[in-house]
Amino acid sequence: MINYFDSYKMCSIFCTFRTYYMKIPVLNISQFKASTPLNDVYINAFSNHIQRNKNLINKPHSHNFYLCVLFTEGTGTHEIDFNSYDINPGKVFFLKPGQTHFWKFDTEPQGFIFFHSQEFYELKFLEHKLHTFPFFYSNQNPPFVELPPKKLNELNQKFQDAYSEYSKTHLFRELKIVNAISQIYIELARAYTVNVNLEKLNSSNYSNTLETLERLINTHFYKEKFPKFYADKLNISTKHLNRVVKQTIQKTTSQLISERIILEAKRLMVHSHGNLANIAYTLEFSDYAYFSKFFKSKTGMTPLEFRKKYF
């Protein structure tokens, strides 16, 4: 029988383990500031950005802010949470806080980048939240949109205007910038959903449930790995929760939980110094053999094979 002090000691060791082994660099906006910065927002030409911050972004990292980047020139790959996407002119990428990413360029990139905190946007638009934009709504939605030439020219000008305003110190500068970002998001959301049934998109009941489910999974997936826990939290039956997930993203609740566990496992395997047994312990699997079997069933590789292949 474990007494209170033993439990406290085990908890301390476990918390220390998580802190020590999770070594993904998490960058914040202040690290990217140049001159006369505004709080919680940053805008730059992309070529300037990567040149000025090459020591920050030369390896996989995550952010504590929302990011949007438009490419007008250049080719390469952009890896976001272990999925690779082509970089080419007209491609726009979106990242939410916590996602891991890095760039690899084959030809010199040009374009614009901005990022901002959640508060920077939502304190100005109290009735509109960032998650209502489809590219920030769900991790299941693609983190990019590809613009046709005419739309690319239009959005390039809007990014240029936002960058120009950011580079000056005029009256109401912050207000103009947040409005410029809002206009960019609206135009990008329209391009993103050009082939989407808007009636289905605006049907909010199931969408709200899915959003809450994803937040719950992010909070509890270390410990809670079965759908019943999440259905109970949402005050609905497991059957109804599966119906919601199936109709919105054509998956099951179990798949969503497994995908989040696998994503965290990959992050730990790539960005931490922990051995694989300790990673299994961090993810609260009963033993490494069970974790390895689970990981292989979902990815087709053992944890060791994944780590070797990735590097």
TrEMBL record:
Stored Pfam families: AraC_binding, HTH_18
UniProt keyword list: DNA-binding, Transcription, Transcription regulation
Coiled-coil parts of chain: none
GO molecular function: DNA-binding transcription factor activity; sequence-specific DNA binding
PROSITE patterns assigned: HTH_ARAC_FAMILY_2 (PS01124)
Keyword DNA-binding applies: yes
UniProt protein name: AraC-type DNA-binding protein
Naturally occurring in which organism (per UniProt): Winogradskyella sediminis
